[in-house]
Specification:
This protein is α+β, with helices and mostly antiparallel strands and 350 residues long. It contains eight helices and 14 strands. The protein has one domain: B-lactam Antibiotic, Isopenicillin N Synthase, Chain (Jelly Rolls, Sandwich). It binds N-oxalylglycine and nickel (II) ion.
Amino acid sequence: MAGIASATTAPSLDKAVEELAMNTSSPPEKYILKEGLGGSELPYLDIPVLDLSLLNSSTHETEEELKKLRLGFSSCGYFQAINHGIDTSFLDEVHDVTRKFFKLPMEEKKKYARDVDDIDGYGNDTVYSENQTLDWNDRLWLNVKPEDKRKMKVWPENPTNFRQILLDLTAKLENVNEIVFKAMAKSLGLEEDCFLKQCGENPIVIARFNLYPPCPTPDLVLAAKAHGDPCAMTYLLQDKEVEGLQALKDGKWYKVRIVPDAIVVNVGEQVEIMTNGLFKGPIHRVTTNRERERMTIAVFFTPDPTSEVKPAEGLINEKNPKLYKSIIDYTGNYFQLFQQGKRPIDTLKV
Ligand code: OGA
Ligand code: NI
């Protein structure tokens, strides 16, 4: 998720979820879901696996991959990317620095703690309202682009290669993002730069490193509450062994499968607006696990907050009227609306 935070109540940064997980057999009340989770074993979501190396040409295979992209994004808002051009050895390094950071002693990690009313840095769920149910999740949230939004004091220097790996990861994902954005446009018969243009001169790039500690009561606590991502596109490196991500499709929850070395790509709400609802920004959540911790890395691409985001002209006609109003800085008030239980994209319906 991405946005500018303005929290109302000071959260207890003195207790990371990791510390709660070590010292308690029952999570504090503010983590317990009021509506319960309804925990039965769920089926897997049918998500297309796309070979990104085939997207950049004009062969028959390219057409097939574009069809898969369109199918994945219009049915559930996801695809899994393979042959994305990022080496397995580099992805292993990303997982490795993530693990090394979260395994540092607590005092060391707290050097990078977010300010109580901020989101950038290491910490637990930011509190926006008093009756908010908290996520069973410690995260390190870092603004990477534009460069003047970097808060270097919360960028880990330990492990020593952390910063370089982060910069390399986001640079590599920028290439992937360009391929995906052009392919999205082509799959809808539009000029290939049309969605990239809406992202403006200075798109925002945010990285979120997630630690989901084991939870003694997985039926009562979520690692991340149901949400849509307010960005344009999300790239997720899942934990290599531990599942947890679930997505909502046609009112039912499904598990998202782990595909080795694939990047999970999901539509953000701003692409739902740009495609006039053809591509769905999926509602998703993360469940907790009694035995095993889970670590993931999510990178969010968000349009420049001065750029106007709107349904592409080429998708609107008599049969397909415009569904969303234009918006600038969609993420600006996302978090407060979200914590009040509103879906911000719904406030833009024509
Ligand atoms: C997110 C998110 C999923 C996961 O960070 O917005 O949905 O599996 N993460 O960590
Ligand atoms: Ni998300």
